[in-house]
Amino acid sequence: MNSTPDRARPGKPDRADISVVICAYTQERWADILAAVASVLAQSYPPLETLVVVDHNTALLTRLADRYRDIDTRVRVLANAGPRGLSAGRNTGIAAARGEIVAFLDDDAVADGDWLRHLTAGYVDPRVMAVGGRTVPLWASGHRPDWFPGEFDWVVGCSYQGLPAETVRVRNVFGGNASFRRSAFHATGGFATGIGRDGDRLPLGCEETELCIRLTRSVPGAVVLLEPRAVIHHKVPAPRERFAYFRTRAYAEGLSKALVARTAGAHKALESERRYSTHVLPAGLARGLRDTVHGRPGGARRAAAILAGFTAAAGGYLVGSLRARGRGGGFAVVEVPPATDARAATRSNAAEREVG
Questions:
Q1: How far apart are CA 284 and CA 183, in angstroms?
Q2: What pTM, to 2 d.p., does this model score?
Q3: Residue 84 lies in domain
Q4: Is residue 116 assigned to a domain?
């Protein structure tokens, strides 16, 4: 009988070695942020700490710091110590985190009670450097619009129909429901700036895709896992249920993929997209047409949305490739500073208050 406690087993993180980072930027999501934090505090596998990183919003920073100062010392509120945007906010959280595993949760999502338990299970294997979970949409209208194809749920930050239903090795995780070993950031320098989201501007993405590609190149034998049992529920506000957002987001994804391809190479940057385009989308198109034949609602519109989404993404990729070629392309990889440096940087902001 093996009497070795879990915390001493090679490759298995102790529960006190996990930090959760939630990046926030607007007071309009106040209730969502509180719900996200509450879902982390209620985990069956408790983290060491929860870090809420505020992106250049003094009022929100002060309000959150006041909220958690006397309520829960496991929550710390920090100012983004880098340039505006999600990537720099995540890097600030990484630098300040004390855990050997760093997990990320969107500020408008809530995690299932066993989210961290399932995410961390994959790290028993020392080759595993990142684990991502499954993200389920919470539609503002209470139900999926009948025209919205499940194959395009990534448009609203959720797991799309066609992803594996079992634990499997993948190219990249999705940033709103993901975790990494700290050593992954030592190897890569952190998230790249100039590629991901920046508040409410054009909804670019793919920063986690680029990071995972860089990670597997930097660490020989590194494994990235999808763990579908690690579930979060992501809010989809009413404006994102509209076709205009659907088309804009698909186009922006193409622009982002072009930036990744410029740096990582088209073969790796589009590795998953090839299967998606040749297997997942045709299957979805066929389902939409079958539903139309059988008189089921939304079938024809879902098929049309699949064609429109693919066309928009392809157009964005073409435009992004031409722009990148014309100006040399690319984006910056800003290395994550030591945690002490990050704390000093945030303390230099007079409005910043750290809790915990």
A1: 39
A2: 0.86
A3: 10-332
A4: yes
